Fold AraC family transcriptional regulator.
Amino acid sequence: MNTKVSRLISLGAGLEAQQAELADRIARNAPGEGMHECAIPGVGLLRFNSPSQPTPSVYEPSLCIVVQGRKIAHLADETYTYDPLNYLVVSMTLPVMGQVIEATPEKPYLCLRINIDTALIGELQQQVTTPAPDAAASGRAIFLARTSAPLLDAVLRLVRLLDTPEEAAILAPLALREIHYRVLAGELGHRLRELCVIDSQSQRIARAIELLKRRFHESLRIEELAAAAHMSSSSLHHRFKAVTAMSPLQFQKHLRLQEARRLMMIENIEAASAAHRVGYESPSQFTREYRRLFGAPPRQEVEAARLAGRLAVGG
């Protein structure tokens, strides 16, 4: 056996050992299904014990690092499969269709979700050499990258701190800094750098998305979004769809329906009240669009989701 083959075998064994320890620690800290917040700010643990149905969800800017199982995210006609070999990066808020496709009670789907710190990205990019972002790039605000041993090593050190909260306040920021560095220095790090280039097209679209998030319940004109993004209306519409795979109006509709579902699921608000709170004037239009997105009328879909014990989450 030559040296190169031996090195590859050793590397593979190292990755498996890291993932096994990560799976054990995350499973202990996420004993039930769903998203679990932890003592480390900006970090969440996700667990599912069985495959799920395709469910609309809003993914916030984050790194999703799977340590066991497999999940897919659908955006328009594109599919992103993330598993222990490939982590998912979401650089802007995106409504997507998520589905856990590999999970059992013995080997549940386990994922670590880390919020992207754009301020930290901006600081690190001054020290990291990556290809300059292409101002005309048309890539989506979601992409996959190969999981590496150095990245997993930093993630493992972060997760170990869950058992020593007294140390987490001091050491977690260091581990998070390294994780951001590993992603930024990786094969697709330039996609994150785009967000920190002053007045880049990515940054302009991000501003439009933030405005939609803050005022999704209002009637917003495309001209108003364009002015906030410092773009013409036609340019905004074109670039927005290139990044998110939907128009600003479709994006706003997804945000409204997701928030209405949350209000009904978590706050037990009736469908008509939830529709009004998110900006719908017509209950029949709300019901029609809710059925189109979630596959069933509001009350029926929410009751079924409660029985299943699952609320759509990204990660």
About this structure: Confidence is low (pLDDT under 50) at residues 134-138. The radius of gyration is 20 Å. Residues 77 and 102 are 21 Å apart (CA to CA). The domain at 250-308 is CATH 1.10.10.60 (Arc Repressor Mutant, subunit A).
